[in-house]
Input
Amino acid sequence: MKKEDLPQDPSALVGVTRDVCYVKDKDGKYTTDLSIGWDVKKQALDNAWEDINERIAEAAIKVKNGEISPIYYFMEKKLMDLPLLAGYTGFWQWTIKRHFKPEVFKRLSESRLQTYAKAFDVSVDELKNFNG
Amino acid sequence: MDKSLPYNHIQTAHCENGVATGLLRHHGLEFMTEPLMFGLGSGIFYIHIPFLMVNGGPAVSYRSMPGWIFSRASKLLGVKVNRKKFNSEKEAYDYLNKQIQLGNPVGCQVGVYNLPYFPAEYRFHFNAHNLVVYGKENGLYLVSDPVMETVTTLTEEDMLKVRFAKGPLAPKGHVYYPEDVKQVSKEQLQKAIYKAINRSAFEMIHIPGPIAGVDGINYTARQIRKWRDKLGPRKAGLYLGQIVRMQEEIGTGGGGFRFLYAAFLEQAADITGNQKLISLSDEFTKAGDLWRASAINMGRIFKGRLNEQKDFLECADMLDNIAAIERAAFKELRKIKM
Output
């Protein structure tokens, strides 16, 4: 890529940092230049977030309908999956899956709720009272 | 005792290169550059891991395993890398503070999800980010993060959070720094360059199985041909988006690290006087340009402008073409001798 072809399309990087890119200068030698972003990758990132936000919205509806517990919602909201949540809480994945059931969730001990609240970086109240 | 130490912040495309380059320069190896580090560490690679999902998409990588670049380059230069991981947060905290008091800037492996200075859009649960801690002032760690334009700081609480992020590649407080750094002679450097080039060429061509090295690029192409029928147009488009993100996101230098490798070969030609490396550098520039053209093409699909099976086939053909160019270039590199 030639230096003059380096895209400068505003992206999420603006105001935070710029991206170092390896480009060719006029004499055909490699040099570095800074880019504020590229539309193609901005779109890829935007699409990924659109997908994530859809999943979070679906989870909220399921909680509202009483189909699933707030633990599932916060897992999605914090971009986690089962192995990751298991890592943060120390619970087995099948234990967490059980806690996805609203009736099991209602009977969870205060200490387990606290472990989840810490993993999600929310208060126990927020976790308990989330209703979609 | 708070004590800040002099450390020259450098901004690089890739975080591990940046930390490794900065630390070696700090220890007196001033010739070190990001492309040289990347090349000596045989950073260039390709792998498509089947069945593994990353953020709900395919797991492809354009580089070698996290941590390998610094380890391999150091070994070739006769430098020892001291690495420490911890089970206890307290021990990890004490160890880092001790290094700061000793005046020793260290590399830290961290998760980016809780890095407060990162743009929110980039904060995924990715645990193989690297930064340098070079001091502490008023209870704040002084941080040189190679993807940032300037130095930054982290609170004690945030530092513990990012050092003890959980999940795949969990850092476990991982701290590392070079030891016994001696001056490197020109001859030693030349030898290291040839060895590193040979290793990369070997890995890209001769690793058995269909998923790694140049074969892996063909593997991805074969998968892309099936995605639209198997997953439906929307999800198949998201998968292409993931490939583009891995290839072009902050920290790659563009073109899936191919431009970075081309820059390395250019510097290698300077250091060794081997002119053949210049023409091979051009081949990797070509490959990098094609990777970018492929990203644009994939972008047309995930932007929703195109979404026919023939568009996916075209993306796959482009990858096969890139694989052919890289295969030929690595075969030539395999023949390069001192």
In short: The radius of gyration of chain A is 22 Å. The interface with chain B takes residues 1, 12-13, 16-24, 29-30, 32, 34, 38-41, 43-45, 47-49, 51, 79-80, 83-84, 87-88 of chain A (CB under 8 Å).
